[in-house]
Amino acid sequence: MNHQRKPFDRKRKKAKVERNKSSGHDDVLLADVDKLLRPKSTEDQANGEKTAPTLPERFTEMDVTITMLSSTGDGLAYDQDLNHVFVVPFTVPGDKARVKVVRHEQSHHYSMTDFLSVIEPGPTRDDSLIKCQYFSKCSGCQLQMMSYEDQLAHKRRIVEKAYANFSGLVPHLVPAIEETFPSPLQFGYRTKLTPHFAQGGKPKMDEEGNPLPKEVPPIGFTYKNRKMDMDIEDCPLGTDIVRRGLKSERKRVAENIASYKKGATLLMRESTTRIAKDTPGAKSKVKYIPGLVPAKGSDSGDLITIEEDDYTVEKRCVTDNNATSVEYIDDYIFSNKAGGFFQNNNSILSGFTEYIRSKVFPPGNDQDAQPIKYLLDAYSGSGLFTITLSPLFKSSLGVDVAGDSIVCARDNARANDLPNTGFAAADAAVLFKDVPYPPDQTLLVIDPPRKGCSDDFLQQLLDYRPRRVVYVSCNVHTQARDVAVMVQGDEKRNIRYEIESIRGFDFFPQTGHVEGVAILNRATFPEKSK
Q: Disulfide engineering: 245 pairs with which of 8, 131, 300, 411, CB 3.0-4.6 Å?
C-alpha cells in the first residue's frame, strides 16, 4: 500500500461540514433517492418544468422494477414518468416486484411500499439462499437473497457513499475504500438477541363478564414497515445456544403470561466458560474467572458442551440483564454485564482485532526517533481494544464516561494479567485533560456510539493532537462526518489529519449494516505561498 502523503490543497477543500446534518436512517435513504432523481430534476429545471406527480393511492398494488440497492438495504424503483422513487424492501437491482404502497413522502419524492412477491428475479437474486421462514416480513434481515460475495461488495459501496454523501470532503482527500472484511459465519453468529412482546389493552371477558385467561402475544421482532410484533419461534442468525435460549424463554413467558402486566424485552446472551483439562500446560494457558458461571435463574437452563484439546467449552444463554456474561477472543477473556454493550458477532472478533493490531503503528515506526509506544483508548467500554492491543505498547490507558464499564474493564485487565494497562472514568468535557502520554508518541483509538463524536470531543482531540488515530464505528455515516472534521482540522492551531485507509467490516451478515475502521495520521497545514 502506498502511504505517501497527498498534497493538501486549500482550494479543493469543500465548505465546512454541517455538524448538525443528520445521518440517520431516513437521511441515508434520502441521499440515495436524491441520486436517482438528480438527472431528471436537472433536466426539468433546464426545461422550466416542475409539476407534482399524481401518485397511486395508499394500499394500491403495483409492479415496479428495482433500479438500485440503497445503503439502508432497501431496493429503490425509479419511476421516470412520475419522477418518483418507490422504496421496496427485500429486493435487488433488476427485480420486477409486486408491491403495496403504504406511505408517501411526497416532499422528498419517494414512497414506502410493502414487498408482496417477485414477478421476475434480477440477475443477482437467489432465493435458494434464504434460510429464514420469516424473511420478507421480519425487519431484521434485508439481504438473505444475495450471495455473500455480493453482500460484501454492496457494503463496500455503503462505505463509499457514506464518505461521498456525509463527509463533505472532495474525493482527492478520501482514499479508495478497501474490500469489506468478511465474517467467518454468515448465519449462526449473533451472540445476543433481544426479542420483545407487548400486552394488549383491557382483558377479554366471557359472556358472564369474567376475565378470560390471557392470550400469549406474539414474541419476536417487528414487521417491516409496521409497528407490530411478529411471532418468531427461531432466528437462524443466533448462535446455537442463543437459539435454544429463545425457545426456552418463549416457553417460560407463555407459562407465566398472567404475571406480566406490561410487555417486555427479553435477553438471550451467549456466555462461554473454558474449563482446562488435565493435559500438560493446559491450566497455564486457559484463562478462567471463578464464580462467573451464570447463577441459577439468570440463564435459560440450556447448556452446550464442546470438547477441545486443552479445555472443555460450556456455553449457556444468560437471560438476566444484570448477570455477567463471558466470552473469549483468541486467548483473551472478557466479562461484561449481559445487558451491556459488547460486540454481538464473536466469530469476526479474532480477525477484526488482528487487523487493528496490524494498523496501530505507521510504517517505519521502529526507526522513528520518537516512536509510538502509548495507547489511549477513548470510549473504551469494557476494554476490548485496550486489552487486545496492550501487549504492543509500553503503557495503555482506557477512558470512558461510564463507571460500570470501567469496573468491568479493570476486572478484564486483571483476568488477562496485563499490568501495563489501566482504566479511568473521565468527564466527557475534559476527556484528555489528565492523559499522561505525550501526543507525539500516542495512538488514539475511538469507538463512539452510533451518533458519533460530539463537537466538543473532536475539538479536544484536535487540542491533544495524537500522532495516529484509529476510528472504529458502528455507523459509517457519522464516522464520515467526524473524520471530515479531523481532515479539515484547524489552520489557526496548525493541526489536521490525513486518512491513510478506510475499510468496512461485516459484523452483521444478511443485514444492511456495516462497521467501519478509518486510520488517520496527524499532519500540519502547508505554508502559504508568498
A: 300
